[in-house]
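Recall that a protein's primary structure is simply its ordered list of amino acids. Everything else, from secondary elements to tertiary packing, is in principle encoded there. The following example makes that idea concrete.
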Amino acid sequence: MEDLAPEVIERHRAQMLFRLKELDERLHGIEDELQSHQSKDWEEMATEREQDEAMTALGEEGLHEIRMIQAALERMDAGEYGFCTKCGARIPEARLDLLPATPFCPACAP
């Protein structure tokens, strides 16, 4: 199986590192927002609780994406990036362009 060109790998690495920075900033913003609630009014507290639940869900999605990116960066360092972690097949470059952190080829993708 043919490896990806080094410039393709580095382009994807740069994309993922940039995305990690964005996610880190977003998660810190969510954390700050969740800690800033000081409402004494019951109605406002109920509204804040609903917003907190939505923000928590966004935070969980962000953490999942961070784990996916970190795993992809580890595969890059190990020379395994671009190959399906399930079947070992080469992941098409077009798929990696859309989903640089994907560990699966189209056939194995859930």
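The chain has one domain: 6-82. The chain has a mean pLDDT of 87.
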